[in-house]
Amino acid sequence: MNNKNTISRLSKSFALRIIKLYKFLLEEKHEYIMSKQVYRSGTSIGAKLQKAVTHRAMRIISTN
User: Fold this and answer.
1) CA distances to 27, 62, 64 from 23, in Å
2) What residue numbers bound the domain in which 55 lies?
């Protein structure tokens, strides 16, 4: 259980750093294409983690 919390916390922290990088690239460097790609790639980790957690929960429920 502790490992799950650690992974969630780290992925959230990473996503927040990616969002800050996105804003920096967009506002300071006026880099529109790369900033969007960084944003999509960096925040997709959280979406994949959530999907894995949901899938695992569904497997646990279906075996009971």
Assistant:
1) 6, 42, 46
2) 2-63
